[in-house]
Amino acid sequence: MKNLIYKIKSKLYRYSKEGKKLKRPTYKELIKYQNFKKSKNNKLAISFGAGRSGINWFSKIFNSHSNWVGTCERFADYEAFYRYVSYYKLPIDLDNFYKLLDLASKKDMSEHQNSFISSPYLSFGVRDLSKRLKANYIFFQIRNPIETVQSFYSKGWYLNFNNDKIKSPSIDITTNQYRSFSRVVPDNEFLDEWLKLTRIGKITWFWAMINKTIYNDFNNVENVNKFFVRLEDVNQNYNIYEKLHIRFEFENKLTKKQFYDVINKAPNKGTKDNYIYKDWNDLEKKEFEKIINKIFPFYDEIKTNI
């Protein structure tokens, strides 16, 4: 019954003013904005993260204001392919992908002044996207590793992966195309060890590798305002929202109730059985700790700076 109510609310949201701003535009619609000139009154923000870290919810906070369009995975199919190409460094020209996001941001700014673009699929493009799109702000959104790994598990990550001999980029044909392109595997000497890991171990590697990449690139981007956002700090935190309201000049400040209701506008729940940390076996916990400590032991050092 809860899922049914959630689906009904989600469907109704599509017809609201906020929901209509999220409708995916066609190329024919976007090309009309190719000559739009961004002014000092137009701001572009891009958010990066591994996923399952509140990115969708956070984008809808921005989208809840008349002078912002906040989107998450607006072009999920192209974005997932971008992750695949950029991670494996495939020789594919990505200029048209950058053009797509640029046109979308111009449409946002033309109609609503400011644009907030977010997607976990953009995680390997921090430097390129920040530069090419001339971002004013970039965000690094992260959630504690245990809860994130649990969430990925519930979403079915690497559920159907049973190839122990893979030696090149893989495509998971058991799910849809854009999700298939998002489930990358190690492209280095760690692959042989990774193939022997439990699902928890494989997912932990993904979380750690993505966040390490974003963290390193984030620190090397210049001439842009950078914000770190830990979900545990900002989740349903009205005091943080008030800071966002001031910092990003939101029109029509949300009441506490309106702010708390934003969570109901961001459906992206897991669909599989939950498997929480206390139920993991000793091997899974050991793999988790080893991989975190080896690849990305910096979570506790990251502080929200809004």
Question: Can you walk through the features of this model?
Answer:
By secondary structure, this protein is of the alpha/beta class. The protein has one domain (40-301): Rossmann fold (3-Layer(aba) Sandwich), CATH 3.40.50.300. The chain is 47% helix and 9% strand. It is built from 15 helices and five strands. The chain has helices at residues 2-13, 17-21, 27-30, 55-63, 76-88, 95-112, 126-132, 145-154, 177-182, 191-195, 199-220, 231-234, 238-247, 256-261, 282-295; strands at residues 44-49, 68-72, 114-118, 137-142, 225-230. It has a five-stranded parallel beta sheet with strand order 2-3-1-4-5. Helix 8 (145-154) crosses helix 11 (199-220) and helix 11 (199-220) runs parallel beside helix 15 (282-295). The longest helix has 22 residues, at 199-220. It is globular, with a radius of gyration of 19 Å. It starts with a helix and ends in an 11-residue tail after the last helix. The mean pLDDT is 92.
Main CATH class: Alpha Beta
Terminal-residue CA separation: 37 Å
Radius of gyration: 19 Å
List the total number of helices.
15
Mean pLDDT score, rounded? 92
What is the helical fraction, as a range of percent? 40-55%
Descriptors:
single chain; 306 residues; alpha/beta; Rossmann fold; 5-stranded parallel β-sheet; 5 strands; 47% helix; 9% strand
Task: Give a quick summary of the entry.
Helices cover 47% and strands 9% of the residues.
